[in-house]
Specification:
With about 70 residues, this protein is mainly α. It has 4 helices and no strands.
Length: about 70
């Protein structure tokens, strides 16, 4: 349930705002909710915190692919 995951991950980010795993997971949730711009920002932030992380790079790539398709 993506809306519920969004609520819980957002709450966790209030406690740990620079946690890259939380940022990446919330980016994935927002992507599936169709909030692609928000998802991209979250993934970019996660990548800045933990540069070069393959999972985060893959998330960002998927989001950007969807953004291009949506235009």
């Amino acid at each position: 349930n993506y809306p519920r995951a969004d609520i819980h991950l957002s709450a966790a980010l209030k406690v740990m705002p620079k946690e890259p795993t939380l940022l990446n997971n919330l980016a994935i949730v927002r992507m599936y909710l169709g909030k692609l711009e928000e998802a991209e920002t979250l993934a970019e932030t996660a990548l800045k915190v933990r540069p070069g992380t393959p999972e985060i790079k893959a998330t960002l790539k998927e989001i950007r692919t969807r953004l291009k398709s949506a235009k």
